[in-house]
């Protein structure tokens, strides 16, 4: 857990530094940065936390997200769906966890490239018929940066905590710290 917190703090500091440099370089531009509908496709990786950490090593997956502007350049409604595989340690009778999260939320830009995002929705378990529930509530607070790489093209990098309620009455929640790096483009 201490390593996860250290990684999170280092990532946040790095994003803040990158955000400061990009903002300083783009002050002279007259572009409407980030306006309009934005789509992104990304890779997700994570580290299980809490009781899940005892039996699982890491997670890997992908996601697609759409951002719809409410307040131009500042507040967006997000829709996100993807796939996460949480890899089990080599223990007899223990299988990987396969999840399909479907989330909606808000993304707020307090400064030009730095954002705070919160999402909630449902996470569907796809590989275990022994579970008492096939769906659970999922929530994901996130911080990140949106770095311009060309006309209406961006790299969207975010660090999040993703929490799922239990699939088993006596089981564990499927919580992890995750990193999403995505290619984004405005329509």
Describe this structure in words.
With 187 residues, the protein is mainly beta. It has a single domain (2-29, 37-186), classed as Porin (Beta Barrel), CATH 2.40.160. 13% of the residues lie in helices and 56% in strands. It contains 1 helix and 8 strands. The protein has one helix at residues 2-25; strands at residues 38-48, 56-71, 75-88, 97-108, 114-125, 135-150, 153-164, 176-186. It has an 8-stranded antiparallel β-barrel with strand order 1-2-3-4-5-6-7-8. A hairpin with a 2-residue loop joins strand 6 and strand 7. The longest helix has 24 residues, at 2-25. The N and C termini lie far apart (40 Å). Mean pLDDT is 82; it is low at 1-32.
SSE ordering: HEEEEEEEE
Supply the CATH class. Mainly Beta
Helix content: 10-25%
As laid out across the biggest beta sheet, the strand order is 1-2-3-4-5-6-7-8
- Straight-line distance between termini: 40 Å
């Amino acid at each position: 857990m201490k390593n996860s917190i250290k990684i999170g703090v280092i990532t946040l500091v790095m994003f803040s530094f990158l955000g400061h440099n990009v903002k300083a370089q783009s002050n002279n531009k007259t572009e409407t940065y980030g306006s309009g509908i934005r789509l992104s496709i990304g890779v997700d990786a994570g580290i299980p936390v809490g009781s899940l950490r005892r039996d699982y090593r890491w997670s890997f997956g992908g996601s697609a997200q759409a951002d719809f502007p409410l307040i131009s350049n500042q507040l967006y409604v997000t829709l996100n769906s993807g796939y996460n595989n949480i890899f089990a340690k080599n223990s007899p009778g223990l299988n990987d966890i396969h999840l399909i999260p479907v989330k909606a939320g808000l993304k707020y830009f307090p400064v030009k490239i730095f954002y705070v995002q919160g999402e909630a929705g449902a996470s569907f378990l796809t590989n275990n018929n022994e579970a008492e529930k096939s769906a659970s509530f999922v929530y994901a607070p996130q911080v990140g940066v949106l770095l311009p790489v060309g006309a209406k093209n961006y790299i969207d990098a975010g660090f999040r905590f993703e929490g799922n309620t239990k699939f088993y009455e006596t089981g564990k929640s499927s919580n992890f710290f995750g990193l999403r790096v995505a290619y984004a483009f405005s329509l």
